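stage 2 :: seqdesign
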């Protein structure tokens, strides 16, 4: 019976044209509802299980990954050599862990099962083609290499002596991945148990991976080089929902690609700047109180060249322009002090930490919600588990930092913790980001 169901559930997505025909029909008759590709996101702890981890180890990785990400995004937004590179700092041994989710799919024919790190800041999908347990393209009937002569939309970084179209991705923290650009058949097992086959996906088949020892691939979801982008190929719509970053057993973290992707909630203007997705933050409230922060502090200004509000999934922390951060911190301290909580010394100096009982929601009952007011009236609403993180068994801290503290002032990044329990949907044609506060499990009920 299982086999039968799998067969009836095969959706062949040949091309964008085919997708748009399906969509046109749907717009009128609703006989055929466009069906997005929904994929489960695998929690990093289910990929790299570390039974000996203490809460402190984890909190340190959490912070280290967030600092690395800040420096990487800052470099990327400022141009220079890193402009077109995939994200690297997250995938070095020190920082791949804890904040980034993995996508599972199969590559080639016969299909080879592959895990790759989801990355909203890079556009290329690449997989390990070198190590013994990796994908071996010589076994696949559907593998096709690009040569330097036939690339049109896919720029080669270099040409090999055999005229192969080569890519090189250099990482901010020193690692790299190099190999040949090719196309392959990708097979996805959707979270609704359907099977989707996508032919001719552009990907990098990596022959040399340095300083990223444990990484087996990256699943890029940015779109700045259209020829590389699976999001473009699937119809320019993307969404993700991450319910709980701490719970490796939470089953409903997911992404969705293509027509039929759930675009609901309030829409805010979205810009794609040097491969980073940006939104306009206009203000922050705690409870009903709008904080007294000059809105110009949030404006992206070309005079700095490097600032703006990137929304990203690579790390947990949210980084604010320092002046805004200190206003926010003072307001939070006022509320927590009023609740009688005991302040603790913050090892990172700038932050705000309190004694706790290992349950942030219980330690902060009736704490007001925080709202990020984005352009056009869209709100990102944070409860205490999206504002604070567990630093140790007896202490929790604010999961925000001042970007100036790390030398990247005027740069703002909205991190994963702040995005928990929201469906975040990118409409790249309409240039809008849809934000809806939702329990991710509800997205499985169609
Ligand atoms: C749907 O198709 C019918 C004819 O089959 C047409 O009369 C109607 O206007 C169409 N509706 C829309 C919304 O396009
Ligand atoms: C985090 O970074 C600090 C300073 O660079 C380093 O000492 C520490 O070992 C790192 N911790 C983890 C868990 O990577
Ligand atoms: C990935 O999918 C394959 C095929 O469906 C499955 O055999 C494998 O166990 C999955 N891997 C993980 C980590 O879930």
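stage 2 :: out
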């Amino acid at each position: 019976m299982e086999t039968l169901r799998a067969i009836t559930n095969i959706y062949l997505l040949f091309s964008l044209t085919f997708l748009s025909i399906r969509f046109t029909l749907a717009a009128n008759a609703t006989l055929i509802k466009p069906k997005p590709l929904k994929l489960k996101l695998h929690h990093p702890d289910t990929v790299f299980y570390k039974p000996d981890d203490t809460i402190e180890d984890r909190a340190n990785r959490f912070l280290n990954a967030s600092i690395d990400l800040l420096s990487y995004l800052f470099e990327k937004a400022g141009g220079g050599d890193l402009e077109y590179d995939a994200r690297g700092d997250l995938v070095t041994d020190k920082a791949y862990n804890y904040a980034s989710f993995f996508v599972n799919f199969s590559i080639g024919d016969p299909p080879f099962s592959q895990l790759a790190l989801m990355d909203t800041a890079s556009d290329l999908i690449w997989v390990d083609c070198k190590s013994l347990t990796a994908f071996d393209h010589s076994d696949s009937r559907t593998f096709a290499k690009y040569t330097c002569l036939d690339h049109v939309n896919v720029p080669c970084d270099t040409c090999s002596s055999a005229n192969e179209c080569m890519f090189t991705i250099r990482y901010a923290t020193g690692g790299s991945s190099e190999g040949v650009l090719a196309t392959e058949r990708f097979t996805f097992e959707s979270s609704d148990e359907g099977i989707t086959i996508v032919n001719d996906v552009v990907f990098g088949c990596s022959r040399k991976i340095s300083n990223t020892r444990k990484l087996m691939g990256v699943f890029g979801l940015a779109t700045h080089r259209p020829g590389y982008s699976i999001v473009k190929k699937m119809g320019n719509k993307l969404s993700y929902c991450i319910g709980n970053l701490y719970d490796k057993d939470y089953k409903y973290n997911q992404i969705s690609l293509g027509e039929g992707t759930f675009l609901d909630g309030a829409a805010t203007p979205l810009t794609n700047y040097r491969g980073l997705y940006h939104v306009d933050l206009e203000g922050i409230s705690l409870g009903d109180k709008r904080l007294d922060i000059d809105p110009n502090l949030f404006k992206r200004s070309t005079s700095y060249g490097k600032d703006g509000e990137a929304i990203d999934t690579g790390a947990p922390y949210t980084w604010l322009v320092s002046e805004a951060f200190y206003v926010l911190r003072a307001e939070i301290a006022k509320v927590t002090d009023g609740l009688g909580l005991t302040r603790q010394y913050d090892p990172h100096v700038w932050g705000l930490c309190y004694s706790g009982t290992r349950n942030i929601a219980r330690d902060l009952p009736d704490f007001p919600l925080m709202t990020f007011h984005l352009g056009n009236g869209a709100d990102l609403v944070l409860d205490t588990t999206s504002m604070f993180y567990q630093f140790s068994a007896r202490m929790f801290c604010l999961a925000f930092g001042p970007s100036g503290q790390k030398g990247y002032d005027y740069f703002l990044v909205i991190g994963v913790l702040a995005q928990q329990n929201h469906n975040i949907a990118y409409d790249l044609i309409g240039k809008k980001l849809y934000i809806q506060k939702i329990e991710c499990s509800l997205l499985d009920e169609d």
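stage 3 :: structure notes
- The radius of gyration is 22 Å.
- The chain is about 20% helix and 35% strand.
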